[in-house]
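Ops channel
N.P.: pipeline sanity check, posting one input/output pair.
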């Protein structure tokens, strides 16, 4: 079960990831010769790193009753982080490119960074499923659609830009709405953890008594 401080940190991680993603991705929507676009492009790796760390923090603190699912999302994030670092150090940097630029120009690199975004997809799916958030549910489809479209080459640039813009808007709404949500929602139900900590015999006895009610 999370504490109030942990919930705030969890939500702060989401905001950090969203803000970094919005800043980095906005370069694709700005004129190529604009000062802001050039400034963002020079710092894409920094935005990517900060956003990844924010997502990692949220996945470390995320409240999921099924531990295996939580560990799976964390493992995906770890694989994506390692893949991103390896892609940058062995492929992008030697070619004189930043990581984002390299992935854009070499779609096959999605295989290396993809697990990180898969963990993000899992996080928003959890939020959409647990709290009925439309923007989270839509992100569950938008994120993999854009990445798979880029990887396979079946999607033209116009569609990619549309999906990217949709992703930006939904991510901002998703992260912002987390701070309008009661803290208790992310803290969770303590009774579940109390039950899990019970010895096997006491669990069986409690279940039997509940069934008799």
């Amino acid at each position: 079960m999370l504490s109030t401080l942990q919930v705030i940190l969890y939500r702060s991680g989401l905001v950090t990831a969203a803000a970094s993603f919005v800043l980095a991705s906005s370069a694709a929507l700005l004129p190529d010769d604009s000062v802001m676009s050039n400034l963002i492009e020079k710092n894409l790796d920094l935005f990517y790193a900060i956003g990844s760390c924010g997502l990692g923090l949220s996945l470390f603190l995320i409240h999921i009753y099924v531990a295996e699912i939580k560990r799976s999302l964390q493992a995906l994030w770890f694989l994506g982080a390692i893949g991103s670092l390896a892609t940058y150090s062995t492929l992008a940097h030697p070619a004189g490119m930043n990581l984002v630029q390299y992935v854009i120009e070499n779609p096959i690199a999605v295989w290396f960074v993809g697990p990180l975004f898969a963990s993000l997809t899992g996080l928003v799916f959890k939020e959409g499923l647990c709290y009925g958030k439309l923007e989270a549910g839509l992100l569950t489809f938008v994120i993999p659609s854009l990445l798979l479209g880029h990887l396979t080459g079946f999607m033209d640039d116009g569609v990619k830009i549309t999906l990217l813009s949709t992703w930006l808007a939904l991510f901002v709404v998703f992260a912002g709405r987390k701070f309008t949500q009661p803290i208790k929602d992310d803290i969770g139900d303590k009774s579940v953890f109390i039950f899990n900590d019970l010895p096997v015999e006491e669990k069986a006895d409690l279940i039997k008594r509940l069934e008799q009610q």
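N.P.: looks fine end to end. The two ends are 27 Å apart (CA to CA).
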